[in-house]
């Protein structure tokens, strides 16, 4: 155990949990500080408080006391992982009883401090409890009525915009979930359009906006995404459709922070519950990456009479901060009745039986329509085994996942960590192509070539981590080229990853680019932005790193032709279904899984379980 991770002040049970690697020093410090301020001396409360802080650190909104012992402990550098069952757990009922009378929960004579909430045996840090309540209250209020819609106009628009792809003289065959999604978004103040990559979410959003613009000439549209990269991608793909669907003008998208008016150095936003955003419709893409805190701020700032359309893939990894709001909203029970307008405008889709291309709506899907939620299921981009593999992972079917991986299908492969010849060939050929274009000053070609293959890892460090594999890749490239790459200087063909938002230079955390020759012997950085690359002097780049391998978390929101996924050993807490799903769905033409059968099975079977009260309705 690394000493810095052990809290010096921790004693007794807290110290044992800290040394075992369940708690970090910060969890212990926060718990002890709150206990001192509130005058709480009982160890079960100290432990529950520290575990609640840990739960938030790991992405949950609260600590589920019914599952308090379900903690995963990673292997330690100096030995095997501690079995959590061997730790000195207090009696479950003793924890609950102590909390029920704790001044940290019920308040005490030391003042108004009440940092914990105990609700239905879920222990919350007060801040997250209040945010969850706000989200629930605003969503429930927005669900009590429906926007007024000119049904004739909507029907005509749906008929015009959702045509058969092969034969545009005919409307698309029923059921068409994209058409249903458009009607759902028109019929609700809040709607969720969920779906995997390439299911046509953006295609549908462009049509929804066109339909709403016809209903409300002069419609003010706000487009946003949690990251700059995702916002740039949303803007680009919606604008490709502007002419096709008849939108009045090109649109711009921004990060959620920017839309809300983030003010440097404060935690306040310019737009909030008293100063609402000036839009009639707001579309948020990549909503799976939105944290509870951000969703709370957004909902507070949306006018009650503005539509909010949340778009994303609930099966992907959730936000790095606490909360998995999109997945929670999808799982949340539906309340209220279906908007009768839906049956009038998309009745044929709702009652259609199976079509060769799309299955009939299930009872559960029909039920979700009541809360303005629809999941697009028909893949429009990649067919073949990548989509099947992603579905098998999502459905937690490890045997099917392994069958597909071993099927010999041309778009999927499964290799041992010792057998990296294929990875090496992909790394070298991609780099050769990127470098040739970069040296020729062809920024578009270099950026395009850099999307040919990407090496993805679960971890950042260690033998399965991105840093280690990036060094391998640099060695392979150096050997193939006959000269070593020098990570301390700029060179043509160098792949870049931006690690922090820089609003001034308009590059954002997660942006990827390439160093190219600027023609006059000078090197410049090129970033993909729509049709024209965005060029920037190297001296203007603040936080960037060379990226021959990246973490799966970082790759969210991007796609590549070929992807090699380095799985960690079975036993890593990062290895989850959401991680595998996200990694696989980054690939357009080929996904290569590098790892063991045990790691695949464990990943498919372990779901990230983020405790939250939103799911309970
Ligand atoms: N109904 C349709 N008919 C024909 N082509 C379609 C249809 N829906 C989507 N497409 C095409 O399929 C591709 C994927 O669509 P789109 O980009 O909208 O998917 P997405 O769900 O937003 O994907 P991602 O999550 O990867 O951004 C696009 O090329 C789009 O033009």
UniProtKB/TrEMBL annotation:
Residues 19-124 form the RecBCD enzyme subunit RecD N-terminal domain. Gene3D superfamilies: P-loop containing nucleotide triphosphate hydrolases (3.40.50.300), RecBCD complex, subunit RecD, N-terminal domain (1.10.10.1020). ATP binds at residues 195-202. One of its GO terms (biological process) is double-strand break repair via homologous recombination. Residues 547-594 form the UvrD-like helicase C-terminal domain. A helicase/nuclease that prepares dsDNA breaks (DSB) for recombinational DNA repair. Binds to DSBs and unwinds DNA via a highly rapid and processive ATP-dependent bidirectional helicase activity. Unwinds dsDNA until it encounters a Chi (crossover hotspot instigator) sequence from the 3' direction. Cuts ssDNA a few nucleotides 3' to the Chi site. The properties and activities of the enzyme are changed at Chi. The Chi-altered holoenzyme produces a long 3'-ssDNA overhang and facilitates RecA-binding to the ssDNA for homologous DNA recombination and repair. Belongs to the RecD family. Heterotrimer of RecB, RecC and RecD. All subunits contribute to DNA-binding. This is RecBCD enzyme subunit RecD. It comes from Rhodococcus spongiicola.
């Amino acid at each position: 155990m690394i000493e810095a991770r052990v809290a010096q002040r921790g004693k007794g049970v807290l110290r044992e949990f800290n040394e075992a690697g369940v708690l970090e020093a910060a969890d212990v410090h926060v718990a002890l500080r709150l206990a001192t301020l509130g005058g709480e001396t009982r160890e079960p409360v100290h432990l529950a408080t520290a575990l609640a802080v840990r739960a938030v650190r790991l992405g949950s909104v609260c600590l589920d006391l019914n599952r308090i012992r379900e903690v995963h402990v990673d292997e330690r550098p100096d030995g095997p992982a501690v079995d959590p069952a061997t730790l000195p757990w207090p009696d479950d009922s003793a924890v609950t009883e102590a909390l029920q009378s704790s001044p940290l929960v019920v308040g005490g004579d030391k003042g108004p401090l009440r940092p914990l909430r105990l609700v239905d045996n879920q222990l919350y840090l007060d801040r997250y409890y209040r945010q969850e309540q706000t989200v629930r209250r605003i969503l429930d209020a927005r669900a009590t009525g429906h926007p007024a819609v000119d049904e004739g106009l909507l029907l005509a628009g749906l008929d015009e915009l959702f045509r058969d792809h092969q034969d545009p003289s005919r409307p698309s065959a029923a059921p068409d979930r994209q058409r249903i999604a458009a009607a759902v978004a028109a019929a609700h103040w809040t709607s969720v359009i969920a779906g995997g990559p390439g299911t046509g979410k953006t295609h549908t959003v462009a049509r929804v906006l066109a339909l709403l613009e016809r209903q409300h000439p002069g419609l003010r549209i706000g487009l946003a995404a949690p990251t700059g990269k995702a916002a740039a991608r949303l803007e680009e793909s919606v604008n490709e459709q502007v002419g096709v669907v008849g939108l009045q003008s090109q649109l711009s998208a921004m990060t959620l922070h920017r839309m809300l008016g983030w003010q440097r150095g404060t935690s306040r936003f310019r737009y909030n519950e008293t100063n609402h955003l000036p839009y009639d419709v707001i579309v948020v893409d990549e909503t799976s990456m939105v944290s509870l805190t951000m969703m709370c701020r957004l909902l507070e700032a949306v006018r009650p009479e503005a539509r909010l359309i949340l778009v994303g893939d609930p099966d992907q990894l959730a936000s790095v901060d606490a909360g998995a709001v999109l997945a929670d909203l999808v799982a949340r029970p539906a309340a209220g009745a279906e908007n009768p307008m839906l049956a009038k405008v998309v009745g044929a889709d709702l009652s259609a039986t199976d079509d060769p291309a799309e299955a009939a709506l299930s009872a559960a899907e029909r039920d979700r329509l009541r809360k303005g939620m629809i999941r697009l299921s028909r893949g429009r981009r990649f067919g073949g085994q990548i989509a099947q593999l992603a579905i098998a992972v999502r459905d937690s079917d490890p045997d099917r996942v392994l069958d597909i991986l071993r099927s010999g299908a041309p778009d999927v492969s499964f290799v041992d960590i010792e057998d990296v010849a294929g990875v090496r060939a992909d790394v070298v050929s991609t780099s050769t192509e990127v470098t040739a274009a970069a040296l020729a000053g062809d920024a578009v070609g270099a950026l395009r070539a850099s999307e040919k293959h990407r090496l993805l890892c679960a971890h950042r460090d260690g033998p399965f981590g991105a840093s280690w594999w990036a060094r391998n890749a640099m060695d392979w490239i150096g050997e193939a080229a006959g000269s070593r790459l020098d990570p301390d200087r700029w060179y043509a063909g160098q792949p870049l990853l931006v690690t922090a938002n820089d609003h001034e230079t308009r590059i954002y955390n997660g942006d990827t680019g390439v160093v190219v020759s600027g023609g006059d012997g000078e090197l410049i950085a090129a970033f993909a932005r729509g049709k024209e690359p965005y060029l920037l002097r190297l001296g203007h780049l603040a936080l960037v790193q060379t990226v021959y391998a990246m973490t799966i978390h970082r790759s969210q929101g991007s796609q590549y032709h070929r992807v090699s996924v380095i799985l960690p050993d079975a036993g890593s807490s990062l290895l989850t279904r959401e991680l595998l799903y996200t990694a696989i769905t980054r690939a357009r033409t080929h996904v290569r899984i590098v790892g063991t059968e045990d790691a695949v099975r464990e990943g498919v079977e372990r779901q990230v379980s983020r405790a939250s009260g939103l799911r309970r309705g």
